[in-house]
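DATA SHEET
Item: assembly model
Revision: 1
Owner: S.N.
Input lines:
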Amino acid sequence: MSKLQQAIDNLHEADREAGKRSGKSRIHPVSRLLVCVAYIGIVVSFPKYDVTGLLGMSLFIIITGILEDLSFIKGFQRMKYILAFVVLLGAVNPFLDKRIVMQTGGVTVTGGMLSMMTLFIKGVLTVYAAYFMFMCTGIEQLCRALRCLKVPKGAVTVVLLIYRYIIVLLKEIQRMSLAYRLRAPGQKGIHIKVWGSFAGLLLLRSMERAQNVYDSMLLRGYDGEFQYEILGQEKTGKGLGAVYAAGWIGIFLLLRCVPVFQMAGNIFLSIGQ
Amino acid sequence: MHMADALLAPAVAGTMYLCSGAATGYSIKKVRALNEPEKIPVMGVMGAFVFAAQMINFTIPGTGSSGHLCGGMLLSAILGPEAGFLTMIGVLLIQCLLFADGGILALGANVWNMAFYGCFLGGMVIWSRMMKKGMSKRKIMAASVIGCILTLQLGALSVSLETLASGVTELPFGIFVGVMQPIHLAIGLVEGLITAAVLIFIYEARPKMLWRYEPSGQTEGKFSQRKTVGILAVTALVIGGLFSLAASALPDGLEWSMEKVSGSTELTAAGEAYETAAKIQETTALLPDYGFKTGESAAGTSFSGIIGAVVVIGLCVLCCYGLKLFKRKKQKEEAV
């Protein structure tokens, strides 16, 4: 089950890196979350032929990635499954939309080609935005941001607990799978006859863990609220966060409403001529 | 079935957020009213279980393919529809953040497509109604299979409708639905069987864990084989009806695409295109090697725009690296 091991490794790595970054970050997590949502909203609002505008929106990803030392390759690796569906849907566009919209030298570009390209760019940019936001805030700070936005504490606690239990359960699956493989050498996958008992047993083990963990939480004075202030996470400044959010959202709106890159391109071309 | 942000228009995503938000508000209210704080960590673990269990790919004999466990129906059969729904939201949120399965903007749509149908239709309607007069293995099997198939069919249909409303693909609706529904019928059947197997195991091992289980009211065997077959037959008829609708929609979709590429439509389109191309070349005489599109000029792609974007992005990258080098140098100096 290399997929499981890979998932465990990815989770460990993401958790470690996000924790390291969010510890240093002075930008409030709410600002990061708002900027991310605004960015994704504006990216998907671009018309289907506007490749130039979308290229402009990539500035946010490039700047964040470089300044925060985030890996573009790791980010891209995460989107292989989701992009497959996006590409599949976009791939039919060149065959169905044959309207000529641009000619460059001897090459003719149709509307379908452009709409396929914009769909792919939108897919890449939005996934990068979410991934980078997560890598800069981490799950704890993200849950804190959700609480600041008045998301009920029960829902936030569930998100945090799911995240925390994932690694424990993945390791449990790994143990059970290894035990199964050792008893059934050469068999590919888990036999249909034991699907139910295998998953059911995992579920029962999970429930037992839940009860133990809940008892421990009660004994340590858990009251349903996370004490972020006590954890010493108040290094982030709301003022800086507001400037960060206002600045980026302003830039996004500018790039969305004004064809900045076309204007810049015209200037460069006129200089060239 | 996870939808990416790129597949949704902001208006569609916003509408789906509103729909899912209403269901979330209702669920939170109900969970609060039940006042079972001990359920919160159980929801957490159940969410993690669904998340983790989805990573086990079971081999499907004779097909060479694999499938994984269903989420919504299983969660609502154990936690109840409202708590199950909230748990699925948590699972979907983490999936989109960690594994890029879905998107932040598309979360509302994904919650609706995957959690709402699974938990509310699967749990509140199918599971609850079928278990009203007591539980049995047959009932669990029937509820799981019917629930998973129906909820996945509705989820897949919603994906097609949302994509169509967003206008991101040129694929005709009939063809899209004709591809999506049969695939999800097979997935739903396999997931239903796995869900049933897990729930039957729990029913035998710890029945109290199941939602709607009442030990005193158990009337084993009341749900006869005849009734099970009857329900399955009705489901088959309903699904068959849906497929016939999809099948009748298919020729329309094909006609639409045929019209797009054949006969007079093609001639008109080609003529317009050639005229457009000629006009383009006339208007861009200053740049004879390049052409601009004439329509949607304010928001369109152009050669100068691409040049501008490449140059500005290049400059930006250089500035960022410069800033980073400066920052590192400063940090080194401070360390010394």
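QC remark: The beta strands of chain B are 58-59, 66-67.
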